[in-house]
Amino acid sequence: MSALVVLFVVVLTGAAIGVLALRVRGAARALAVQVNRASGEYQASSAALRERVRRSGAGA
Fold it and tell me: In this structure, is residue 3 part of a structural domain?
């Protein structure tokens, strides 16, 4: 009987860990999307700044 209880607890613990792992994975994916978006905006902003400097002749 106690072996069944231990097995039940192990299965429930495994399920809980699986659910947490899926949530962490989803959060990491969402964070990666935000980081990629932010870095893309930074690169676009940097390119625009370089273009403005190039047009003004301040870089020469």
Answer: no
DSSP notation for the chain:
-HHHHHHHHHHHHHHHHHHHHHHHHHHHHHHHHHHHHHHHHHHHHHHHHHHHHHHHTTT-
Instruction: Kindly state whether residue 7 falls inside one of the protein's structural domains.
Output: no
Q: Rounded to two decimals, what is the model's pTM? A: 0.57
Q: How many domains does the chain have?
A: 1
Give residue 57's pLDDT.
Answer: 77
53 touches 59 (CB < 8 A): yes
> Which pair of tokens denotes residue 45?
């902003």
